[in-house]
Amino acid sequence: MKIKKYPLGFLPTPLHELRHFSRKYTSGYRVFIKRDDHTGLASGGNKTRKLEYLVGEAFQQGADTVVASGAQQSNHCRQTAAACAMAGLECHLMLGGTEPKVKSGNLLLSSLFGAHIHYTGEKRKGEDAELLVEKLRSTGKRPYLIPYGGSNATGALGYVEATQELQQQLKTLNLKIDYIFFASSSGGMQAGIAMGKAMYGLPSGLMPVRIDKEPTGGKSPGEMVSSIIYEARERFGLHTEVDENDLKLLEGYEKPGYGVLTDHEKKAILALAGSEGILLDPVYTGRAFYALMHQTQNQLIHPDTNILFWHTGGLPATFQYAAALI
Ligand SMILES: *Cc1c(COP(=O)(O)O)cnc(C)c1O
Questions:
Q1: Which residues line ligand 1 (CB under 6 A)?
Q2: Residue 74 annotated in active site
Q3: Taking 80 as the threshold, does the pLDDT of residue 177 lie above it?
Q4: Scanning 45, 155, 185, 301, which has the fewest C-beta atoms within 10 Å of its C-beta?
Q5: Which ligand 1 atom is the nearest neighbour of the CA of 182?
Q6: Can you tell me the distance from the alpha carbon of 195 to that of 191, in angstroms, rounded to the nearest whole number?
Q7: What residue segments make up the domains of the chain, in order of their start?
Q8: By the 8 A CB rule, do 109 and 42 touch?
């Protein structure tokens, strides 16, 4: 079945060089950035591209309501709430923890977009989502369930397409990228890029930085990525010979745990903000960009190469971390 996407973003996103940053921090490497923090939907981020296909599929299935889940500072849930507002769908979010006295960051924004919020305690990955779906159905709604992080074959289509977009930009700039760094968590973006890379012949090595220490639904991040690719083959007939290496993640940086801000993320945030005026978030991009700095400064990847950092957004969470950041 073919999915007709529902346009939500301002695409293509810009791609440019980080000249000042490279000169100051990564001598011997040229660093470029792809600005998916500027996809345009409710302050941007990588969920916009996934949601174009997920919302498209929701409409194709005749849904009038959407259910999504995540942490209170979930960028995915904030972007889902905004997408639903744009598309005229009712939005239900299942968020971990209990209701805080003051809502800030992504939680504040999700509320402003009119989402119905259900607090789910320890469970921040939609463990009980089916129950809510059933309940909504019994009241006459037609719910569409978005998986954790928007990561399934449908969501990944957004990054298959994004990889084609990147490939076209690189052709226009006559630029070869050797390594692509990005934050990888629920695996949808990585699966999409790995498939897109095989389909469009992108010659870059993928450096997906592991963010979350815990498994999701009992699966390691690598298993998540492979199962999304398998699903894309079954459902959409995407017969791509994905490079085994692209299923792996760059590990070690996730050790402090999900959402824990350490000196590493802080160092990356201050370096990019101070040298380029670009903001990274404390949970995902701060961690992934630290990995880029660490790998280049210690020459763990080949010197004299071109690197792309694929910025995935996350800005609103910054405000929730104000006390720890300065
Ligand atoms: C969700 C998210 C990611 C990770 O993308 P996945 O497809 O879940 O692996 C990276 N960065 C930000 C800012 C995100 O919100």
A1: 45-47, 75-76, 149, 151, 183-190, 281, 284-285, 312-314
A2: yes
A3: yes
A4: 301
A5: 10
A6: 6
A7: 15-44+151-325, 47-149
A8: yes
